[in-house]
Hints:
It is a single chain. The model has no long low-confidence stretch (mean pLDDT about 95). A hairpin with a 6-residue loop joins strand 7 (about 125-135) and strand 8 (about 140-145). The protein contains 3 helices and 8 strands; from the N terminus they run ββαβββαβαββ. It folds into 2 domains: about 1-40, no CATH class; about 45-145, Gcn5-related N-acetyltransferase (GNAT) (Aminopeptidase). The protein is of the alpha+beta class.
Amino acid sequence: MTATCSSSRHDRDVDIEDHPSKADIDELEELLNEFNFATTGIRDGLEVAIFERDEAGRMVAGLYGWTWGGHCEIDMLWLDESLRKQGKGTLMLRAAEEEARRRGCTQVTLGSHGFQAPDFYLRHGYTLVASVDDYPRGSSDNWFLKRL
């Protein structure tokens, strides 16, 4: 659904979308990245992805993030229920950290809601640096940092 919003302070309308296209999101990310690269002069940004699939090709584990300017951010880490508590998450996290080190990163940040796995990250040497209560309602959004 797209809604149009206008304001007397602006001479153009804005469209608010609740289902934006992947192409539009990719374009926005590309434009923001180009601004960041041009402003900082740092152009070493690379994605980091680790995926595991079962025999049928269904994803059963994955990690996604990026490195840029000596920093690694892990955006997503997910394991199928059948793979949890068997060391797979530790293996994926360590692999991402090692790749970050190889790329010259000195720190890693990541987020985890209170109902996800904050204790997992604490056990792996991450420090809680920020928390927003009631996001989502009844839980929290937590940001962790680990110096490499």
